[in-house]
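Protocol step 4 of 5: obtain the predicted structure for the target chain.
Materials: sequence only (see below). No template structures provided, no constraints applied. The aim of this step is simply to have a reference model before the mutagenesis design in step 5. Sequence pasted as it appears in the construct record:
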Amino acid sequence: MLDAVTNLVRQGWRNTLSIYYANTPIWRLLKSGALAFLGVFLWAGGNLFLSYLPGARIIDYVIAYGVLVFFYGPFTHLVIIPLVIRWRKRRGGLRNKLAKRMSKINLTFFILLVLVVGTYAPGFMFLSFDVASGGSNINPELGCVDRGEVIECELTEAEGVGQVVVSSGERTLVTVEERPYGFEVRKDEMVEVVGQKSYVVEIRDEDGEMQRRFSRSAPP
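Step 4 output (structure tokens):
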């Protein structure tokens, strides 16, 4: 049983390598397109998930993987692999030795890059999503202005709003229960995640049910 599993794993690895090193133009384009699509999917999906759970740091690495694989994947299959195949055809020499280890070097470098970018994530990787509960007729607009140390916000079209709750991480910063539903948020009170401060604005109805959720990043 163990031998069968081992053989299956080895065969799967051989098949993966054969696809990885497939070097015809159509294969290169197919692999590059698939990785670019995967990158966009993980980048957008990670940002959407992060709008519901802004404190989930593991999602930062998923987003970093998506952004990097969008660029690094096509670069690998359009540039690096064709170069490695040419070097492998040379007998002896430094290039031949390097080519035999290039797949491991390339993968290791990519993983390290994901860890670094995920840990020190630049702001351009993150999107702001406005999430509404299904069937809600409450559709306010949130306008915010950066005043340096504080951010001033106000709701418009606030019919049906009963309460506004502003939080950062697990900390509730402001609760507003009266019109005009304006508030200020101090940047030094926000939770910082991977070098970026963010806050969430929940719009609740008169029964206290969340109807809309705004996720925002604070300007540096």
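Step 4 remarks: Strands lie at 130-132, 141-146, 150-156, 163-168, 171-176, 182-186, 192-193, 196-204, 210-217. The first helix runs from residue 2 to 20.
Proceed to step 5.
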